[in-house]
Amino acid sequence: MPSTRYSKRRRVSSPAKEEPPAYNSSPDELAASSDHEKYHSHRAPSKPLREGRGRKRSYADIYSANSTAVASEDSHSELAGPPRASEEIPNVLITAAASGEDSPDELDHTTPTFFRRPFRASFSKESRRPHEKFTSQSPSPPPYSRLSSPIATPRTPLIRPPQYEPYKEKLVLKGHRKGVAAVRFSPDGRLIASCSADATIRIWETATGKHLHTLEGHLAGISTIAWSPDSKTLASGSDDKSIRLWDVSTGKAHPHLLLSHSSYIYALSFSPRGNMLASGSYDEALFLWDVRTTRLMRSLPAHSDPIGGVDFVRDGTLIVSCAGDGLIRVWDTATGQCLRTLVHEDNAAVTGVRFSPNGKFVLAWTLDGCVRLWNYVEGRCVKTYQGHTNSKYSIGGAFGVYGGEDGVEQRACVVSGSEDGNILCWDVQSKDTLQIIKGHQGVVLGVDTLNKEGLIVSGGIDKTVRVWERVREGAGDSADPVGAAIGALKVCEQEAAGMA
Predict the structure, then answer these.
(1) What's the farthest any 2 CA atoms get from each other in the chain?
(2) pLDDT above 60: residue 195
């Protein structure tokens, strides 16, 4: 009979003449099944057994005999016989978390990904299988007895919820003569780029804040910048209607400009392979460029108002754009076809948009003071984050993470600037405000995250670029009550060892 997984309560219609099925269930399931034990303990032999002269043995006699046999030291070899191949048990039992529908809490990132750690079964010395205690002179026992299943249920380690680690100011970078419109970490995390209304781009070292280059060449203010995936090229879009490509190592611009837009360039994004560049402009058009040849590949009449943001999905097959018309549109990169249009009932102007790192959601900033998370496949808004001020300026943000160390669950968060000079962090799933970071004097226009290093960079109208560092557990300053409280938390060594 083929192996079959049965429910916990098994019912046998006619146990008198059937051989037991070869179970492939885990030992803890067999141990938990009282009907299984009862079935094997009360099963009748293939032929009637006789005792004495012609008297048939009753089931009570069989059960009594079996109970006596179980109590004996040689019950394994006498009753169960040699083990069957189908009864072999793996050395380690793994209980994986059940997979369900995608939710905003399962957002994975390129550096640490969002996951639920698999549960690992761990057996103590006391829960070893009985046959492991037999000596070499003892007959070879079966993996488990048919009459008793003494294997202990494995202990499921507890994954603790994360404790949010607040950010504190690490560096203040000064040098721009006007407000900072956008800031970006390089993909390798070594550099920070900032652009300003003073028509310059500045390159900073992430670790020390050292100023490396000032990129000059645009004739008007610069509203947007984007890094190539290899961190070697930087693209910038300006109010002079041009897009420039820069060699970051030398600080010099590519000799050919990307010229086709008829108005201000307001949004840029590189494809994951770095061979395409998407640009959005006040001329309401979405352009796709070939980076190698600097030629226009495709022009999409995307919106009926100036485009505020564009972004590529993680595999480069989709592009998302948003505009002042309140629409968010998802495009097929290969064909230029609009696959989905997202619009909220309030129809507020959308000023920024980003794909989630797993490519399943879209995060959008709107001028009604909300940040919304969209399931673009189903076309519905799944989360709305509030608490910041945003009614006039185009404000940016990013996804972040917290937790994930030493058996602690890892969770996603949303980081956004605000017109009141604050930076807000929300838990993606619960929408709780995790922290309000204060430091800027005026509107915070650009925010980016470097999750593997626990850093946030921000730029604002106060002409400064600020780097914020996460306060790790155990590293809190005694002058900071929040940091001191977090530093005082102790991790249970027993739980940490069980999750290692």
Answers:
(1) 114
(2) yes
- Strand boundaries in 136-228, DSSP class E: 167-174, 180-185, 191-196, 200-205, 211-216, 222-227
Q: What residues form DSSP beta bridges with 252?
A: 247
Distance CA 440, CA 424 (A): 12
Q: Measure the N-to-C terminal CA separation of the chain; round to a whole number of Å.
A: 40
Distance between CA atoms of residues 128 and 147, nearest Å:
18
Q: What are 245's strand-pairing partners?
A: 235
Sequence letter at residue 260:
S
Closest CA to 267 of 259, 279, 284: 279
pLDDT digit string (tens) for 63-122?
Answer: 455 544 444 444 444 434 444 444 443 333 233 333 444 444 444 444 333 222 333 333
CA distance 190 to 183: 14
Three-state DSSP state, 250: coil
User: What global pTM score does this model have?
Assistant: 0.65
The single residue listed with the structure tokens 């990132």 is 109
| Mean pLDDT, rounded, for 384-388 | 96
CB 89 within 8 A of CB 96: no
- Among residues 241, 354, 335, which one has the least CA distance to residue 288? 335
Distance between CA 45 and CA 58 in Å, rounded?
Answer: 11
Give the pairing of strands 433-438 and 422-427: antiparallel
Is residue 192 within 8 Å of 219, Cβ to Cβ?
A: no
Q: How far apart are CA 12 and CA 427, in angstroms?
A: 50
Number of C-beta neighbours around residue 57 at 10 A: 16
Element containing residue 67 per DSSP (H, E)? helix 59-71
- Name which of 29-33, 116-120, 442-446 the model is least confident about: 116-120
Query: What pLDDT was estimated at residue 119?
Result: 30
Residues 6+ positions from 66 with CB-CB distance below 8 Å: 41, 79, 147
Least confident of 162-166, 229-233, 282-286: 162-166
